[in-house]
Amino acid sequence: MLRHDSFLKAVLFSRRFCSSSIEKGYPIPESFLVNAAPHHIQNFEKYKEIYHSSIKEPDVFWSSQAKKLLYWKKPWNRALDFNFDVNKGKIYAEWFKGGLTNACYNALDRWVESGQGDRIAYYEEPNLPSDSSRVFTYSSLLEQVQRLSSFLKQTCHIRKGDTVAIYLPNIPELPISMLASCRIGAIHSVVFAGFSAQALAERIMDCKASVLITCDGFQRGSKTVHLKRVADEALEIVKNAANHHHFHVKHQIVLQHLKSDKSEYSMHHPRDIYWHEALSSSSPHCPVEWVDAEHPILVLYTSGSTGKPKGVVQATAGYQLHAASTFLYSMNYHLGDVFFASADCGWMLGHSFMVYGSLANGATHVIYAGLPTYPDPGRTWAIVDKYQVDQFLGAPTLIRSLLREGNAHVKKYSRQSLKLLCTAGEPINPHVWKWYYETVGDSRCPVVDTWWQTETSGVMLLPPPIEGFIQKPGSAGVPFFGILPKIFAQTENGNIEESNHGTLCIARPWPGIVRTLLNNHQRFEETYFHPFPGYYYTGDGCIRDEDGCYWLSGRIDDVIGVSGRRIGTTEVESALVSHPHVAEAAVVPIPHEIKGQAVYAFVTLRANVESSENLHLELRQVVREKIGAHAIPEMIQWSPALPKTRSGKIVRRILRIIAEKGHTLSPSRGELGDISTLADPQVIEELIQIRVSLMNNKKEAA
């Protein structure tokens, strides 16, 4: 059922968000329409024509795209079969069932076989501008992929349907590892290189990966990250896990990326082998394993509200088709363009727009593992000029941080190669949108502000960069082809009905929809299809304006969006409570100027335990170790107790209000809503006083 309080907050926020930001529309710049390559969709009228056709006959539309963008060893039997209604049976969606294809072949072999092997696939930008960079063509990429595939198959005995875990920074060997896995029909699970040993171990055990691919370490700005040490610690956790004693990682492939002193880490033979030794001893030719369109290609973990990360499973053909089509049309990509996403291949955006979707379009990318502001805040634009980037994608978090550094770092560089700007990961504030458009793009580059999720695999809403469309700062635009959004609201009498503001749902399956959650189809159905039977539930609040444009207000479930990354509240709370001095913890999101949202933690200590700066640091470290640095609370408030109902349920709605504006609150003014169900209302007064004290201390420190 819909959470009424959360829903109301989302709707009210949406109204404020929209009314304050629709100051004026921005037509697609004339200079873009004249100087950029013609868009694959001629104009907005043509978009509407194609869109209506794609909704009326989705099977026909997606079949035509599948034939255009992918290679098929064998055609499919039926374009689509599905059930979205939990009342009618098991939830499923099957696209192009019976058809045979391979995502690696679509990404690499096609281009090499057509004589385009010399096309550049990746420019690798080094951590320091003065360091040498590497260039990978489609041919050189394919050779390394085949060698790694051969090793996985012949030495590691990986077979179709087995899982390979990948724990690498944002370097070319990451997509190489992904493509090598799917080439032989294996499933890959990429774990972001910022995750802790505990988080890595949990994911390895959940997907039962028998091979882990990692590296010695990498430089990120001035910091050295020793990845092999973390990987070894994770594998030790896996080994010692009593309930997984029948499972272990048999092989670990270690890339010497840093070329660091081998005394910095240990190699455990025969489990561990160096990347260069594995590839040099393997055949440069590895045949493609043709797989059914519905064969799983990847498992990617995303945070959920219950605490345990969700293993999102994607199917080969539908996933790559949606990634390829949304990349092509949203980026207006043409062969020869250079695309740079300040993102990581470890997330779905990187999977789709830096590997599977983009390579299927023959794209040339810039891939960068360093900080976008290192060694100075102009680094991003230096990279743009160096590689003559045509399309740039940056998350709102990055854009906010660059805005904060001032215009001089932007204006220092030409940026004349830029044709289009994109953003994804979270809603962008209109003020930030305008800075991005006017300062970075010199008011000549359209801003494609997309909305999508890990579970959707590709763009769902976008402002198409085509003639006749009016950009609105902060709006995610209109639906992508084949996507039918529905917004539902709860009326005063409790009924659910369609509305222009409420909870965003999707009415029909699209090729890239998540197929299930690994090992837990019941949770899959409960999460995405129980709230509104017959519809995919996004968990986002939304409003549709009079022009048909959509505005996202953010999550309405118990997930916090930090820098575009979704963090489960229960996951953070569990980490905090694991400390022996903590009795109870509750975390809520608070607005953050740079990150969008940040984690605010209310912590109750055990009896006779005193709060201290050391304990504060220990709790931050616990979260870092169990989840990762991105989940560390922005603020920890020591709390004598937490507001609870008489049944013992923590009322997080109240905690969120206290965290956001507790220093201005007065319970007597009714700003907290109904508190009659609380077991001890006096707790609120104490929490507000502590919040005020924290704010005063913060001001004094400033």
Automatic annotation (TrEMBL):
It comes from Galdieria sulphuraria. This is Acetyl-coenzyme A synthetase. It is an enzyme of class 6 (ligase). Transmembrane segments: none annotated. Keywords: ATP-binding, Ligase, Nucleotide-binding. Residues 47-107 form the Acetyl-coenzyme A synthetase N-terminal domain. Residues 114-510 form the AMP-dependent synthetase/ligase domain. GO terms for molecular function: acetate-CoA ligase activity; AMP binding; ATP binding. Residues 571-649 form the AMP-binding enzyme C-terminal domain. Belongs to the ATP-dependent AMP-binding enzyme family. InterPro entries: Ac_CoA_lig (IPR011904), ACAS_N (IPR032387), AMP-bd_C (IPR025110), AMP-bd_C_sf (IPR045851), AMP-binding_CS (IPR020845), AMP-dep_synth/lig_dom (IPR000873), ANL_N_sf (IPR042099). The keyword ATP-binding applies. It catalyses: acetate + ATP + CoA = acetyl-CoA + AMP + diphosphate. Its EC number is 6.2.1.1. Coiled coil: none annotated. GO terms for biological process: acetyl-CoA biosynthetic process from acetate.
